[in-house]
Amino acid sequence: MDTALTVCNLRAYYLTRYFGIEREVRAVDDISLAVKKKEIYGIAGESSCGKSTFIRTIAAAVRPPLRVLGGSIKYSFLDRDLYHLDDRALADIRWKRLSCILQGSMNVLNPVRRVRESFKDFAFPHMGLARPAFLDVVKQHLERLHLSPSVLSAFPHELSGGMRQRVAIALATVCRPEFIIADEPTTALDVVVQKDVLALIRETQREIGSSMIFVTHDLAVHANISNRLGIMYAGRLVEEGPTGVVLHNPMHPYTRHLVASLPQIGDLTPKKPLSGAPPNLADPPSGCRFHPRCPLAMEICRRAHPALTPLDSGRRVACYAVSPLVKPAVDSAAAPNRTQADKYAVFPR
Amino acid sequence: MLRVLHDLFRYNREFAIGTILVLIVLCLAVASFFSPYPPQDSYVVPPDVPPCWGHPLGTNSRGQDVFWQLTVAMRNSLLFGVAVAFLSRIISLVIGLVSGYAGGVVDRVLMSINDTFVVIPLFPILTLFYFMMHDHMSWTLLALAMASLGWPYDARLIRSVALSLRNREFTTQSVFSGMSTWQILFGEHLPYVLPIVLSTTMNNINWSIGLEVTLSVIGFTNIETPTIGTMIYWANQHTAMVAGIWWWVLAPVATVTMTFIGLFLLSVSINEFVDPRSRLVRVGG
Amino acid sequence: MGGLFGRAQFAAVDDVSFSLESAHAEIFAIIGESGSGKTTLARLILNTLAPSKGLIRFLGEDVSRFRGRRDRLQFMQKVQPIFQNPYEAFNPLKRVDRYLFASAYYFMGRPSRNAQEAAADEALKKVGLSLAELKGRFPHELSGGQLQRAAIARALISSPALIVADEPVSMIDASLRMSIVNVFKSLCDELKVSIIYITHDLATAYYISDRVLIMQKGKVVETGPAKQVLSNPRHPYSVLLRESVLSPDDVDKAPPGA
What we know:
The complex is a heterotrimer of chains A (349), B (285) and C (258). Chain A has 349 residues and is α/β, with parallel strands linked by helices. Chain A is 28% helix and 22% strand. In chain A, helix 6 runs parallel beside helix 7. Chain A is globular, with a radius of gyration of 21 Å. Chain B contains 13 helices and no strands. Chain B is globular. The two termini of chain B are 20 Å apart. Chain C has 258 residues and is an alpha/beta fold. Chain C contains eleven helices and ten strands. In chain C, helix 4 crosses helix 5. The longest helix of chain C is centred in the last third of the chain and has 18 residues. The N and C termini of chain C lie far apart (52 Å). The chains are: A alpha/beta (349), B mainly alpha (285), C alpha/beta (258).
């Protein structure tokens, strides 16, 4: 099988009820994508577009008030849907087959324990080695990532931000997982450090041969790391394709605007901003969620949201104005039945 | 506002139970105004009568109806507790906010005073106070004394909140909007301090009623005024438990326990409701 | 201006000197990474922090001599800040227009409520918003871009001569970022307000600033006209910064990943 991860029609909402006020935030609404083996699939989108929620669903880290309401997630190393696994099976694949590099390495490393302990907590159970052999493997791994083994006996606050993030990458890759999920790993870092860390991630991914989903709002970072790029807007994927193609020749109006509004050194052309603001996911616009801000909006855009349609050259777009092939999505009219949420009551545990 | 209370009542069990208990107690206190017997008089009814139709809670050895005594006692104790809580809130708020915001020397001086008051042993001081004031002892004086001793813990709590707020960016923006220090303290910071103030008010009422009961049972207050504590004092004086007049002791103890539990539940649920973090979740922040 | 702020043996800002003319408005960018001292410098300029050594002069007067409410109000009327996180700059429990009205009240001679609202509306229009949109709203009801623009409008109410903006767009979404950056440009060009624009993003600095100052570990590394310094940096650190900037065109270079 050529794909590492297949996601079909995934829906995950935040359902809250607090003091009698019910809210349903449609963070992930009907997302389907496929990540090939050894590929880095980038997801770009702004804050509150749902990309962090999406990460949580594919990492099986769903907790209330987030609930998965529909769809399927299948990894190549599993024989069934991620949500049909029990706790023991999940614990088994976590870190060994599936690991995460998150934003803010401070959250990953326990601030009151040495780095060595974090490695022991995360990786030791999976590697099945004796303690000394395990430490050797860890030290070799650290050296490959240009970190001195003395890092192991340090506390997180003794290391700089860049070093901590490198440790976090080492932690996530030491078991040589088949799939890595990266959520804004370079966003909080300085410009100079960011470049190094990105190169490190690239190198490590190539060496281990794992597939990766890389989430960040920064298109310039995607240009430097992702093979294919998916653009998310308001809980839906609106465009997808090889990174170079999407950045040089964006089709969806939102992508076009994103690419055009990037300032660059040496470029003094005036940048025009987009009117309006990203929608509130608790009450999103009808039909295509971008239509209130879209310069090409038509009548049909307000009625039914377009399906993410494959076009030539491996691209997919969800915009009626781009191609006549794009048709309304099949189940766009019906909102998922809330009682069905109990079908997925197995998540959250 | 009414809608908010209604929602709280429906969805929060602690609030519901607390409200019911406190309402019962309040009704008792209000009923005191309708008492057919003057509260200070004794031997107005046959003594030592067990609970029956004419006297729902029986009568005591001093010839007073226990039920009507209880209503007056509850009223007085509640008034006392609320007065003390109110006065000490004012002191702790002002000191806590000013100390946390000003920092530096002002903070250190105020906190030294604060800590001095914390270590003052409450009970011996109040006892000393009673012996000094003996004949001039009145409830007002006692309330003032307790209010001036009951603020330090809460002042520190409020100060810690004020300290963290001082460094937040909206405080700087308020300064640069030209707001005066008082406006910042009571306009911007107060909402964050409010949960602490509310919950400590309830606790303070409990504390002051408790202390009043303690002092009265020993006889260190004006025992002619009917309060929960003095009722128990008189019951002890007439050895009610030994004599089998259990209703005389049970009535005040049960009522004051109900008050404590009710106020506590209210403080816990209001605290959760008013907490800025839960407010943000509710309005969708 | 110049300032030295020392704590134990560590100088957050070490021997920094520069000056802005009051005659013509300009956008002066201060570029540095974390730990470079740029935020400390901002606080020194805003007089929320006192320098250990050196002098900060505003309109010829030593800033540290401003004590008492009246002096400070006068200073604040001319120098206003913009913060990095608009959601932190406004009290989440209070309405946004409160700060606009307060600024109008204290800096425009305590006018009536109607006059306050008019002043707020005027300032909001300059940044592309209006009072009708904002009235009665809480910060979480607005987007990051709208809120930051409201913060800029608030700073404008007192008709300041200088705005100190500390990383004003780093927490704003990419698609809304340029609208804010454009607002700064129009503030300088049309309203003649000088702006000290502190950032770590060289691209936006290139886009709007006239002069630039690059800091590293508290010291000045390079300074000069913006386009010149950013296109052809000379100091090794500036060169390193410039080369580390990522751009979407990088996709044409060495293929990323397998």
